[in-house]
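Moderator note: this is an archived Q&A kept for reference. The question asked for a predicted structure of one protein chain; the sequence and the answer are reproduced below.
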Amino acid sequence: MRKIIMILAALMLITSSHSSGQITFDYSGAELVLEHFVDNKNNVEQILTHPGYQHILLHSKKYSSNPITVDDLMNSLNGKNEGFDFSHIKERKDDYAKIIKYLKENEQEIINDYAGLCLKYLPKDYKQKATIYYVIGGYNGIAFDGKICMNIDHKQFRENYNEIKLYIAHELFHIGFEKYQPLPDIFKAKTVKDLKEIILSQTMNEGLATLTPYHKRIEMNEISDYDYNILLDPTALNKKIDQFNSVIQYLNENIDEELTDEILGTVLGQCSGDRLFYIVGCYMGLKIEEKYSAKKIQELVKVNPEKFFEMYYQLTNKSAGNK
């Protein structure tokens, strides 16, 4: 029986996927969940082994301090809502159907107008290749190891389909950046110095991913997203920059200290929770692009994130001690 289920899963993956160039679109994860809750299909095993949901679980295991597990996914599919919010599937089924239809009809637009935005900031020798899994539940969007998962149940996506396309552009930058800069392992950090290296890397990575669709958003007047609201408000932006500089100063002053949960929570709470990675990192990229063009960013992606910071501090006349 298990072998039959796996064969059916493979067939579904083939029939509900579409490849365009080096970008492959896969809708089967979202479709399987809809069939499970709306059509009452007994397809739990197919969902548990689906590459999109497997990717979400692996991402959580690698990067979350409280990872969601396969048991959480199974319990969520059984109505217990553990790690995956499937509570609105039936009432939103028509919304999901419209989103999937829209995405299938606009694959070429995504390829032509959004998938290539990251190439402006990635080295010329980068060969783009990625699979985009559309799913329901999990994180809003994740990307690593050549695969992206987009949660079409995210409120921002349900209310504005353009946001899906713009977020895909963001995630595709991460896929490319990873080819040149290894993703940091927060669980291996032992000292504040280790944490600072992670902060520099993540600021560059998330900042440039935020920069990737920035000009497109301005062109489309799609600037309702929180990060871009701040970036376009000089007063609010300066507050974020000051906050980030305070974080860097704190790290520098405690650089040789052992890393504690309190320090980790305080620093990551600001950089991630307060969106400093995204907002300040994007601003840094913008300043470098304005002065030297996107080509300079392409060059910086090939070297370590410290060089990205050095370039920014040179432009803003910050002291070397703030690097």
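Archived answer notes: The longest strand covers residues 130-135.
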